[in-house]
Amino acid sequence: MEAPGKSHRRQGRIARPSDSEEVSSTEWEDIDMTEQEEDLIHRMHRLVGEKWDLIAGRIPGRSAAEIERFWIMKHRKGFAERRRERKKAKPGTFIK
User: Both ends of the chain: CA-CA distance in Å?
Assistant: First the structure.
């Protein structure tokens, strides 16, 4: 049998939304990159893979997280479909 008061020690800290810096991918905004930045990201990715810190070191003013988010949004199937829908939509139309 467990001693009274010890069970609370086993309970982990409950994570609250404010405790995490992660944001749902549906809440991500498009990241505007120049053609030169996009080109450099593509070339660096071919050379070093998903080493976002290394890639960010070559692009002044861009963080590794920002570059990774740009890459995911540009290359993942769900994001690509959403981008195409936005381009086809008429101005003022709401798309999830």
Answer: 52
- Stated pTM of the model: 0.54
Structural domains of the chain ordered from first start:
32-89 (1.10.10.60)
pLDDT at 60: 93
Answer whether 5's CB lies under 8 Å from 75's CB: no
pLDDT number for residue 92: 60
pLDDT averaged over 10-residue windows placed end to end, the chain, 96 residues = 52 46 56 91 95 95 93 75 64 56
User: For residue 57, what is the DSSP state?
Assistant: T
Furthest-apart CA atoms within the chain: distance in Å:
66
* Token code pair at residue 1: 């049998």
Task: Give the separation between CA 63 and CA 52, rounded to whole angstroms.
Answer: 8
Rounded Cα distance between 96 and 82, Å, is 8
